[in-house]
Design brief:
The chain is of the alpha/beta class and about 220 residues long. The chain contains 10 helices and 6 strands; from the N terminus they run βαβαβαβααααβαβαα. A 6-stranded parallel sheet has the order 2-1-3-4-5-6, sandwiched between helices. α4 runs antiparallel to α5, α4 runs antiparallel to α7 and α5 crosses α6. It is globular, with a radius of gyration of 16 Å. This is Pimeloyl-ACP methyl ester carboxylesterase.
């Protein structure tokens, strides 16, 4: 059985992958933000790669998508499939990233983190789930949030994506307030072997629409076999 490794977005708990793990055997998510730095996208990609003992399917959500793409390009022998969830080739259309970085640098804490979490869902998660997600975010070092977003802001994967030959899927929540449908279409067009999946949800389909993400993973696994 091929393992499926989930890479969450910035300040996002690995627990957001639990609904997908309930549907697809072998799914596990990494907590890259609570591990020691550095927290640039390439550095995190290399740390995740070092933990892999066999080829996997990577599922990258948001910032995790940039990490997964970077890892897949650098280590094609370790990645048999790639699923990118509500992310993009670059952040040029992510208009508020500088404002988020500035707020994280100046006002890291419950209010700033809660605002980022709240806009990650089209429908708020249950109160107990929100509390758990916020508690995870508060345990993340502020330097991690600032460093990785600066790194992602300055990263353009437009020329990297066409070099990734493994089967891929792009999943996009149509009510995402951070990333546009056009960004998902661009991402799918740049990948040589990608299928595009739409989900009736916000920025976090791994939690909000796990059935769609599970279908994308199964599609990649089928094409990789």
């Amino acid at each position: 059985m091929t393992d499926v490794v989930g890479i969450p977005g910035t300040v996002c708990s690995p627990a957001v992958f639990d609904p997908v793990a309930a549907l697809v055997p072998g799914v596990r998510a990494v907590s890259w933000m609570t591990a020691p730095g550095p927290w640039t996208v390439p550095a995190v990609a290399e740390r995740v790669a070092r933990e892999l003992t066999a080829p996997v399917v990577l599922v990258g959500h948001s910032t995790g998508g940039a990490i997964a793409t970077t890892l897949a390009a650098a280590h094609p022998d370790l990645v048999v499939g790639l699923v990118l969830v509500d992310t993009g080739a670059h952040m040029r259309r992510h208009g508020d990233v500088d404002a988020i970085i500035d707020r994280f640098a100046a006002q890291w804490g419950r209010e700033a983190l809660s605002a980022v979490l709240d806009r990650s869902f089209a429908t708020p998660p249950p109160a107990d789930v929100h509390a758990d997600l916020l508690a995870y975010a508060e345990a993340v070092p502020s330097a991690a949030g600032v460093e990785v977003l600066r790194s992602q802001r300055d990263l353009d994967l437009t020329d990297v994506l066409p070099t990734i030959a493994c089967p891929a899927a792009v999943v996009h929540g149509v009510h995402d307030r951070a990333r546009s449908a056009a960004e998902a279409e661009e991402l799918a067009a740049l990948l040589p072997d990608a299928e595009l999946f739409w989900a009736e949800c916000g920025h976090t389909p791994v939690f909000e629409a796990p059935g769609v993400v599970a279908a994308a993973i199964r599609s990649v696994l089928d094409r990789a076999s």
